[in-house]
Amino acid sequence: MAEMASSGESPEILFWVGCAGSFDDRYKAVTQAFVKILNKVGVSFAVLGPEEACTGDPARRAGNEFLFQMQAVANIQVMNGYEVKKVVTACPHCFNTIKNEYPALGGNYEVIHHSQFLQQLINSGKIVLQGGGEFKGKKITFHDSCYLGRANDVYEAPREVIKALDVELVEMKRCRTKGLCCGAGGAQMFKEPENGNKDINIERTEEALATGANAIAVGCPFCLTMMTDGVKNKEREQDVKVYDLAEMIAKDMGV
Amino acid sequence: MSILPQLAFLLVLAVAGFIIFKRVGYVRRNIFLGKGEIRNDQPNERWKTMLLVALGQQKMFKRIVPAFLHLLIYVAFVIINLEVLEFIIDGITGSHRIFAPFLGTVYGISMNIFEFLAIAVLVSCVAFLIRRNVMRVERFTKPEMKGWPALDANLILIIEIVLMFAILTMNATDQILASRGVEKYVLLDGLFFSSFLQPIFVGLADSSLIFIERFAWWFHIVGILAFAIYVTYSKHLHIFLAFPNTWYSNLKPKGEINNMPEVTNEVNMMLGINTENSAEPPAEIGRFGAKDINDLTWVNVMNAYSCTECGRCTAECPANLTGKKLSPRKIMMDVRDRAEEVGKSMDNGGPGLEDGKSLLGDYITKEEINACTTCNACVEACPINIDPLSIILQLRRYVSMEESGTPAQWNAMFQNMETSFSPWKFPPTDRFNWADQLKNEETK
Questions:
Q1: How far is A103 from chain B (nearest CA, A)?
Q2: Are the CB atoms for B171 and B111 separated by under 8 Å?
Q3: How many CB atoms lie within 10 A of CB A49?
Q4: Pair (B23, B135) in one structural domain
Q5: Which residues of A touch B410 (CB under 8 A)?
Q6: Are residues B434 and A22, on separate chains, in Cβ contact within 8 Å?
Q7: Taking the mean position of all CA atoms in its chain, how far away is CA A39?
Q8: What CA–CA distance (Å, rounded) separates B52 from B401?
């Protein structure tokens, strides 16, 4: 972003990478896949790089409002400094926080989740799919992320993206408004679960496997981790893969 | 005829009215133990939500069988209460079926509809008793339902069954008397359902029948008044509070957590940002987050009084489903129980909020609130838009900011965020490293 700004360019979108997209080895692949798609279709975008900080989502949800606002205010200063108008992110937690919680602190942007952005690119013909590639005809189930679904009522965009791949979309017993959490929301990602008789991601993975799907599609870094761990726990990692939507589209486009 | 029954009726009505008035004031005061919050924006949207969710029971229909049975009881409750109007006028004036002459055949038809609804309520209540006590539907048998909550639920169903029997008995004996031409009794064009009860009574003398008919009449009206008082002590308060509760729904996206302006001021000062407000001396800062009911908002407390303990929230809660201690329904029941405890203490000249107890600690444990994934399944599940998550988050804020009592792993996460601006301990300069691989590919 800094480079573009210094050369007087103003990109169409700011791609908010998020901490998982920057540091988590598995999710870095999603960041790369999404960037390849953007490059391929020629969307002008920028990233904040080292100027980006955590949105503060887990701090706020763990109760630490001070820390949340410290992060948020700093991020807003950076974004307002670059006169950012439109933000795209591959993380529903960042999406929710920037879209819904930054306005109260002076950060007003058009914020969209990458599933929505991909859907727009597909609908406008900018992404031309090759007919599903390795996914063609396969059974795919989509796991709703709480912060995309119930939190922001985005249920159809990710499904439209999957359907564009010419696959069979199968739904889990609990989906859309009744979707079951992967277990990582509300800062649970960063601590061990409380005592219980089962881990939430195992419960959800069992439900996903019960659909007989060959792959589980997700749109959230935390869900990706939790579902991947769940599949490993069930020793099904050989035949059931967990993908982010952008990875599936990138594979199909051959980028 | 003596004027005594009329006087007795007026006395009963006045006493019941007085008690209900006092009880409404008590519940209202308890609700307003919560902090002020203004939620009057978007009135059109609010009316629409109330009409759809409370009046139209939109969210009940996610579970079709109980929704249908509940709808029958609800429609019957609203419509049979029209008849209560006649009861009251009859009771005061000493008349009998005062509307009958005015409405003619419409009256007979109405009475048949009422009887049909009474049967529908009977069947539904029996079905609900079976679901609770025989089938033992899982959400009705969770630990927080032991004792009074389970008894309360059964009592309501039994009272409704008894009241419906009173109506049918009254109509059956009333029509036998009318057919015998006993003075004051009005012969209607046949009442279908209660006629099945008539064989039980037909052998009795007029005087016995009049006694039974009068007894049933009094039982029904006194029963209804007593029930109205009982409701204010019971989870059944939802029949009234569902309406304001849905009107004051949270209309923002469910994922949005409210901002704390008192924190914003401090953060801006720390970061050296000048805002319009920063010139003002900081307003008196109370407690951060919530420890007790007076730290919650009045909407939170109203939510608690509106809760009918159906447990749909708990049945959808991922933490509860996997055996954790958290139950969103218990959160709501705890808030109400604590508000009741404080309210009673205040009325008895006791210490009220200063009784050394608090919602957090004495009712709700940290283990419960720490199990929440903030997934909003409970909020989505509630048929009347109760928001347990809002309460959980306010309790977490208190634990974090006033007690510094969050779990150690969260404290470590906080530290990472403070020092490296990420919940994981990576140097911020590595944030762009993901691009190296792409750059390498491009240069190849």
A1: 10
A2: yes
A3: 18
A4: yes
A5: 62, 64, 187, 190-191
A6: yes
A7: 18
A8: 39
- Give B2's contacts (C-beta < 8 A, 6+ positions apart): none
How confident is residue B331, by pLDDT bands cut at 50, 70 and 90?
A: very high
Taking contacts as CB-CB distances below 8 angstroms, the residues of chain B near A56 are 417
Minimal Cα distance from B397: which residue of A? A63
Say whether both B116 and B164 belong to one domain.
Answer: yes
Tokens encoding B175? 């029509």
Tell me which residue in A24, A47, A203 faces B322 most closely, judged by beta carbons.
A203
Whether B91 and B225 share a structural domain: yes
Residues B219, B117 share a domain: yes
CATH value at residue B301: 1.10.1060
- ipTM, 2 decimals? 0.96
Q: Is the dihedral of CA A112, A118, A122, A125 positive or negative?
A: positive
Identify the structural domains of chain A with CATH numbers, from first to last: 2-118 (3.40.50.1860), 129-253 (3.40.50)
Q: Which of A28, A64, A151 sits opposite B254 (nearest CB)?
A: A151
Rounded to the nearest 5 degrees, what angle is found at the Cα of B321, between the Cα atoms of B320 and B326?
A: 5
Q: How many angstroms separate the CA atoms of A151 and A94, rounded? A: 12
Reduced to 3 states (helix: H, G, I; strand: E, B; else coil), residue A204 is: helix
CA distance B123 to B57: 20
Query: Span A221-240, mean pLDDT?
Result: 97
Distance, in Å, from the CA atom of B155 to the CA atom of B160, rounded to the nearest integer, reads 8
What one-character-per-residue DSSP string does B305-324 give?
Answer: HH-----HHHHH-HHHHTT-
Quick count: other Cβ atoms within 10 Å of Cβ B300?
25
Q: What pLDDT does residue A176 have?
A: 97
Tally of domains within chain B: 3
Rounded to whole angstroms, the Cα distance separating B137 from B66 reads 11
Tens digit of each residue's pLDDT (9 = 90 or more) over B99-111:
999 998 999 999 9
Neighbours of A232 (CB within 10 A): 12
B399 in Cβ contact with B294 (< 8 Å): no
Q: In this complex, do B433 and A22 lie within 8 Å of one another by their Cβ atoms?
A: yes
Nearest to B122 by CA among B88, B167, B91: B167
Contacts for A242 with CB less than 8 Å, ≥ 6 apart: A215, A216, A217, A218, A224, A227, A228, A231
**Residue A26 pLDDT > 60:** yes
Token reading at B214: 């009068």
CB atoms within 10 A of CB A25: 8
> Quick check: is B429 in a domain?
yes
The model's confidence at residue B281, banded by pLDDT at 50, 70 and 90, is low
B136 shares a domain with B195:
yes
The domain of B395 spans: 286-406
Residues B188 and B310 in one domain: no
Q: With beta carbons less than 8 A apart as the criterion, state whether A210 and A238 touch.
A: no
- Looking at the fold, whether B399 and B423 belong to one and the same domain comes out as no
Residue B42 counted as domain residue: no
Task: Confirm whether B265 is domain-assigned.
Answer: no
Instruction: Say yes or no: B433 and B391 in one domain.
Output: no
Give the whole-angstrom CA distance, residue B167 versus residue B176.
14
* Mutant choice from A177, A181, A202 vs B, greatest count of B C-beta within 10 A: A181
Query: Does the pLDDT value for residue B1 go beyond 60?
Result: no
**B contact residues 234-253, partner A, Cβ 8 Å cutoff:** 252-253
> Does residue B199 lie within any of the structural domains?
yes
- Report the C-alpha gap between B55 and B244 in whole angstroms: 11
Which residues of chain A are within 8 Å of residue B271 when distances are taken between CB atoms? 70, 73-74
Closest-approach residue (CA) in chain A for B437: A32
**Predicted pLDDT at B403:** 95
